[in-house]
Amino acid sequence: MGSIEFTHKTTSPDNPAYTYDPKKDAYVDGFKREGVTVLAVDNLPAELPKDSSKDFSSLIRDYVYQIAAHGACDITDHAAIPAEIRKAVIVQQGRLTKSYRYLKKDLA
Q1: Residue-range domain boundaries for the chain
Q2: How high is the pLDDT of residue 3?
Q3: Sorting pLDDT into bands at 50, 70 and 90, what band is 33?
Q4: Number of H helices, E strands in the chain
């Protein structure tokens, strides 16, 4: 048992795949072709944090505006801040919040 290496070239996030057609012995960009499709983005791990950061920031954007608008010093007890945010706050004013004090033993 083993692997077969046939990576012809590396690809980019903009054009991530190519297909090798063994009948024609040809490589063609894209994946809607006859043959074996290869995804060979060599810096893919660097792209994943970028995508996840972009998606995550778009989800919390409205919450950040709400916190900024209320000027809350105590987010965990501020009724105008959505419960999702109040429960997600781990550190407030330099201290672990009540729900996350169990982490103190891991912060040595």
Answers
A1: 1-42, 44-103
A2: 67
A3: confident
A4: 2, 5
What is the distance between the alpha carbons of residues 105 and 89, in angstroms, rounded to a whole number?
A: 18
Residue listed under structure tokens 């063994």: 22
* 106 backbone dihedrals φ, ψ, rounded to 5°: -90, 0
Which tokens in the block code for residue 83?
């419960």
Distance CA 8, CA 6 (A): 6
Residues in the chain: 108
pLDDT of 102 higher than 90:
yes
For the chain, the C-alpha Rg in angstroms (whole number) is 24
Its pTM stands at: 0.43
Contact of 35 with 21, CB cutoff 8 Å = yes
